[in-house]
Amino acid sequence: MNPDLSSQPEPDFHGRADTGATLDSAAGATLDSAAGATLDPAAGATLDQQNAAAAGGSQTPTPARKPVNRLHAAIELVVTVVVAASIALLVQAFLVKPYKIPSGSMIPTLMIGQRILVDRLATHPALGSVVVFHPPQGALVGADGVCGNPHQGFGHPQACDQPSGGASSQTYVKRVVGLPGDHLEIIGGKVYRNGIEERGSYVQPCDTGPSYCNFPVQITVPKGYYYMMGDNRGVSDDSRYWGPVPQSSIIGTAFFTYWPPSRIGAL
Predict the structure, then answer these.
(1) Which of these is catalytic: 105, 129, 236, 249?
(2) Which domains does the chain have, with CATH numbers?
(3) Is 100 a catalytic residue?
């Protein structure tokens, strides 16, 4: 059987000093007042302006630059990166997390290498939801897992309704086929829930033999538990062999697939 899922930018400001042109008072005194010449105020104003322009033109203003505070810019960049990374981690930890599909147990819905997004707040899934969860310890024992009831599971007419051990550290993705309190039988890989045959284009034919496909004796999903099965019923390692999954072991509900581009869309 296949293991199911691996949890996979400162402006420069320039100041300019004002340059004032000053007429030399001594030079002004050379005007010949003894000659009785009368200075026309308008002409004097023109002379003053010309002298001022000449004096001002003889100097080249030098713009003053404020030094760029490179240390401040570097610190700001580091803080920005740290904050962005922290937000990304918080989103992954509490809201949305990406996963990569490593096996074929959910074919045709999810292909090997496909990537999905999981809503970590949706831990009470509905019937038919694709969920990510930690399977019980019994899922890791042997090729087909171990049921909490030795008379159920692989090789028996009843699917497993008693998990073996607490939650493992492994991460699986499956579809919810049974809710708490549901009565289930499995025939030809299809689930009969409370007497009603499961219908959905996602269900693949089960042709790997009765030990995988047929569990005609009815079981009841315990309260607080969910029954999980892969869409590729003939090869999926799921609740049939190691039992239902408690709500506390559910990581979240898959809602979107973003890779490869050809398969982008909602789940």
Answers:
(1) 105
(2) 99-266 (2.10.109.10)
(3) no
In whole angstroms, what is the distance from residue 169 CA to residue 80 CA?
34
**Other C-beta atoms within 10 Å of 7: how many?**
13
pTM value? 0.70
**What is the spatial distance between Cα 120 and Cα 224, in angstroms, rounded to a whole number?**
18
pLDDT tens for each residue of 84-143? 776 777 676 669 999 999 999 999 999 999 999 999 999 999 999 999 999 999 999 988
For 256, the token pair is 């979107």
Instruction: Give exposure, 87-119, as e/b (b: 16+ Cβ within 10 Å).
Output: eeeeeeeeeebebebbbbbbbebbeeebbbbbb
Compute how many other C-beta atoms are within 10 angstroms of the C-beta atom of residue 204.
18
Tell me if residue 105 is catalytic: yes
How far, in Å, CA of 43 to CA of 47, rounded? 6
3-state secondary structure 161-199: CCCCCCECCCEEEEEEEECCCCEEEEECCEEEECCEECC
Catalytic residue, candidates 97, 103, 164, 174: 174
